[in-house]
Amino acid sequence: MTAPVTLVKGQNAPLRATSIVVTVDLAAPADLSALLVTAGGKVRSDADFIFFNQPDGPGVRCRQPEPGRPWRIEMDLPQVPAGIDQVRVVVALEDTASRFGSFAPAVARVLDDAGSVLMTYEATGLSSESIVIVLEVYRRGADWKVRAVGQGYAGGLAALITDHGVSVDDGAAPPSQPAPPSQPAPPSQPAAPTYQPPAYAPPAYSPPAHQGPASSPAPAAASYPPPPPAPAHSPPPGHMSAPQGYPPPSAPPAPPPPAAVPGEVSLVKGRSVSLQKGQRVSLRKEDGVALTMVRMGLGWDPIKKRSMFGSREVEIDLDASALMFADQQPIDVIFFNNLTSKDGSVQHLGDNRTGAGDGDDESIMVDLTRLPAHVTAVVFIVTSYEGQTFEQVENAFCRLVDQSNNGELARYTLGGGGAFTGMVMAKVYRDGVNWKLQAIGEGMQARTPIDALPQLGRFV
């Protein structure tokens, strides 16, 4: 068995295998991706950026063996198109506020399809970078070689992929130059610019009539603006679909800032935490183990109206939704007509049109291990599709459930309704490498999640 080749920065070596795997070991959560570039150093299209939400390209794949395990880049070099000169392997820190200089050097390994290590490279000399091209696999005639690169970008992923010709949102910062290895980290480094990967471009949400059970196909979108609301689910009068670039241009004035936040509480094994408005809880169990799969259950009861014929319940059609954000930028909207996020990390379990029955009326699953690295918060809201206000709703609550054992971790109950048609219930958000839950309980005027979008900036 031949000993692995140890590379230093700038060194190259020939490959003796055509099917290889690249892994990177680092003492911090990180994502791997690959850029398929031409001889001019640019991608041919956004499809040549291979990452967790666009994992398959010609001859190159991005894979995570199992949740919580490091990502890997798999290459079948004979399948790489002739117009591709190099495959550049990129490692990005999940926490965009962190820098490579804060950790031991990343170690990249090139393995053959039998798992034998062919080459290793220790990426030393990094400091203020949050993303690095660690290796490149490139053509030399009919053969392939590997070069140790170790080139970092302090401007983050948006800067790197823009330099390679991948499109980003209009609001992204212009590409920055690679950071020199000796550049010290500034005292307070801002997070990398947010961007919206091609596969994440959300549809123009024009909510059609409510669909039936979750398994039923979604009906075709209605034309806008529709006639006034009817008993059947019709979009609100004058409601327009959200444009591709969120948020909509005419945002209503922001409500007053939230009240002072109570202290943070901890999860206790076997006991649900009762949250107050604004209170936070760390999503780690008592033994310090981080949660992975959680379910946000949302519930409400319709008020009972009394008349000379006795009392009756008035059906109140509330809808639970989850909105994913990268800082202030909306990334995806998960609601009754878009049940699963594009990356599969967030799933709505189906629509309830009446609030009838005990327990959760609607539930939304969140796989914390699959949330993309650039997603910083998931905001949970409830909106009144028919326009009834929360004055007609009783016992509205949200609760967080550990899906591994179906145990309730935390619950937040609203103490009375108000003259609003929407409610921001809670959010799950990143705090460094950890996730936390915050109870919010703020009212708003919104009959769909798209109506709510321009009002959510202050919560993220």
UniProtKB/TrEMBL annotation:
Annotated stretches, region: Disordered: 168-264
Pfam families per record: TerD (PF02342)
TerD domain mapped to chain residues: 5-164, 273-446
Bias (Low complexity) ranges: 207-223
Compositionally skewed regions (Pro residues) per UniProt: 175-206, 224-238, 245-260
PANTHER family per UniProt: CAMP-BINDING PROTEIN 1-RELATED
Protein's name in the database: Stress response protein SCP2
Higher taxonomy: Bacteria, Bacillati, Actinomycetota, Actinomycetes, Nakamurellales
